[in-house]
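Worked problem 6 (solution included).
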Amino acid sequence: MSRILQINSSARRVVDGQGSVSTRLAQELVARLQTQHPGSELTVRDLALQPHPVLDEAALQALFTPAEQRSIEQAARVALDDALIAEVQAADVLVIGSPMINFGVSAQLKNWIDAISRARVTFQYTANGPEGLLKNKKVYVLLARGGIYRDQPSDTVVPYLRTVLGFLGMSDVQFIYAEGLAMGPDAEAAAWEAAREQISGALATIA
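Solution. The predicted structure is:
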C-alpha cells in the first residue's frame, strides 16, 4: 500500500482545520495510513480547489473524436480526464470524502466519476458482461451527512457509489459514516466520535 489517492469532493474547502467534514475526515484517515505505512506516496485531488468540468456535449464530442483528429481544444479537454484516470490507475488506495447533497453525491464527485469512467480504459464490455479494469484497489469513503440516513431507503449515496465503483473494478470499498452533523452540538460531537471509531476499526484490519 504505497500509493494513496485522496479525493476531496466537497464544494467547501478546509481552512485552518475548519470547513468540509468529509475532507477533514479523509485527511485524518490518510494521516493514519501514512503513520502505519511510512514512505507512502500521497496524491490529493481537491475538487473544491480544482473543479473538474461537467461532461457536456463538447466533452462527449471530444471523447468520440479519434485522437489524431481532435482540435487543440478537444485534446485539452480529453487530457483533463486522462489526468484523473492516470491518478486512479496508479493508486493502491483511494480515500474519498463524500458529503450528501440533496440525497446524492456532490456535483464535484459526479464530475470526477464521469471523468474516470471510460469504456475500454477503466471498464469494458465482454461476452460475459461488463468488466471493471481498475482492480486490486482498496477504497475508503468518508460520508458526511446532516441527518441520519444509514441503511435507510433515503440513502442513495452508498448504493450508487458501491455500484459505480464496483462497475469500474473497485469492489473492496469500506464506508465510514459521520451522521447527524446538523442535529445540534451533541449530535455533531457524537458523529465525529463515531466516525473516528470506524476509522480506527477499518485501519486495525491492515495494521
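Discussion: The helical segments are 21-36, 57-64, 72-90, 107-116, 157-167, 185-204.
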